[in-house]
Prior knowledge:
single chain; about 170 residues; about 35% helix
Amino acid sequence: MAKLPRDRTERVGEPARIGVLNGPNLNLLGSREPHHYGTRTLAEIESLLRERAGADGVSLTFFQSNDEGEIVDWVQANTGAVDAWLVNAAALTHTSVALRDALDGSGRPFVEVHLSNVFAREPFRHTSLLSDLAIGVIAGFRASSYLFGLEALIRHLRGSAGAGAE
C-alpha cells in the first residue's frame, strides 16, 4: 500500500476524508466523570464534528470501541478510505503499541485529541505512545478539543502552514 506524505493529501481537488477514532470508555461520555470530560455525549460530539466538516466539504467516518483489537482492525481496514485521522485513543494513548503501529503503518497524518488536560491529571496520563507520530496534540478543551483538532487537520491537509499556525 502506498503511503501518503504526512504533510498533504494526494487526492487534489477531492473532498478530504477523515476517520474519527474513539477509544475505550468514550461511549460513556455525558455521564462519566463530567468534571474531567464535560457533559456532551459522543453522539453530540459527532454531530458537532459533522456540522463543522460539512461546512468545509469534508467527509467523516466515526468509530468507537472498547476493544484494542477492534480499533487496530478498523484502522487497517479504513486506511485506504481516509486521508487522515482524528484520534482520541483514550486509555490506549498510554498503553497501546499496537495502535501506534497501526496509525504509523497507515501512512496518514493524525491529530491526537483529549477532552481533559491529561497533563493536569495522574502522572501515567502524561505519557503518550502516539504524540511523537501525531502532527499535533490538543488537550483540555472538552468537546472543543475535537473541533480544534478537526480544524487543524483540515488546514494541514489543505497545505496551510504548520497545521494551522498562522
